[in-house]
Amino acid sequence: MRVLFIGDIVGRKARNLAQEKIVILKDQLKLDAVIVNVENAAGGFGVTPAICDDFFLAGADVLTTGNHVWDKREIISYISESDRLLRPLNMIKGTPGLGMTIIKLKSGTIGVANIMTNLFMSRTDPVFEKLTDIVNYLKLNDNVNFSLVDVHGEASSEKMAIANALDGEVSAVVGTHTHVPTADHQILEKGTAYITDVGMSGDYNSIIGMNKEDALNRFLNPSSKKTKLEVSPGEPTLCAVVIETGINGLSKSINPLRLGGKLEQVSLK
Ligand SMILES: [Fe+2]
Ligand SMILES: [Fe+2]
């Protein structure tokens, strides 16, 4: 299968760009599935039901999130009834919504899990203890033809360790949250595609997608009253990866895709 994963959408311009590109790329690259991290899609903080619906309408199949999932309270009732919008799996028991899902598509059945790391992140259950749940639920070549884990976290070491723990068990492990793309996309030894961070889809003339002046001011004057950060208004770069799997469900390739905005443009050969 050929699957597009788009990194953290930051704000309206990035949303519009992503939705426009999903429609084009689905056809152009003959994509079987599209997965998007939307944790910053609503003004940089959280996501709303209307934004989720727009992504599904554009052709997204599953949406993932992270630490910002609850920033817009109206998402709580929506996520409670959705099997296509995920929150991190290792949030405490009783948290609304699902942390993993299985969706039947035309070209096969896909499984997606969303987890959050523990280092330098808001508190969640120990992430390594949840990995067996993922492997037991998303069984490659059994109940799913393709499986992807969105590892939402700050520390590259932890993300890489999770990927190696899952190597050979899932089709892909992709990192999100840092809002900066890494250049280490690769197929791990046992066939799992991996990248430490896909990068945000947002304005890179910014500090991780937010207005430079306000974000810098927080560092320069840590004791002053925090001003609310606004999404940086420049042209966004869509940051994504395209993963291709073979008949065994493991990956043959993972390629970055960067379109629009300030970053160097990368399209598929
Ligand atoms: Fe994010
Ligand atoms: Fe995040």
Write the layout of secondary structure elements.
Blueprint (H helix, E strand, L loop, with lengths): L1 E5 L4 H18 L4 E5 L11 H10 L3 E3 L10 H6 L19 E6 L2 E9 L14 H7 L8 E7 L3 H11 L5 E5 L9 E2 L5 E3 L16 H9 L17 E8 L5 E9 L10
Parallel strand pairs: 1-2, 2-3, 5-6, 6-7, 7-9
Antiparallel strand pairs: 1-10, 4-5, 8-9, 10-11
Helix pairs in contact: 1-2
The structure holds fe (ii) ion (2 copies).
3D architecture notes:
The chain is α/β, with parallel strands linked by helices and about 270 residues long. The protein has a single domain, classed as Purple Acid Phosphatase, chain A, domain 2. It is built from 6 helices and 11 strands. It has helices at about 10-30, 50-60, 75-80, 130-135, 155-165, 210-220, and strands at about 1-5, 35, 60-65, 100-105, 110-115, 145-150, 170-175, 185, 195, 240-245, 250-260. Helix 1 (about 10-30) packs parallel to helix 2 (about 50-60). The longest helix has 18 residues, at about 10-30. The mean pLDDT is about 95. The chain binds fe (ii) ion (2 copies). One fe (ii) ion (FE2) binds next to loops.
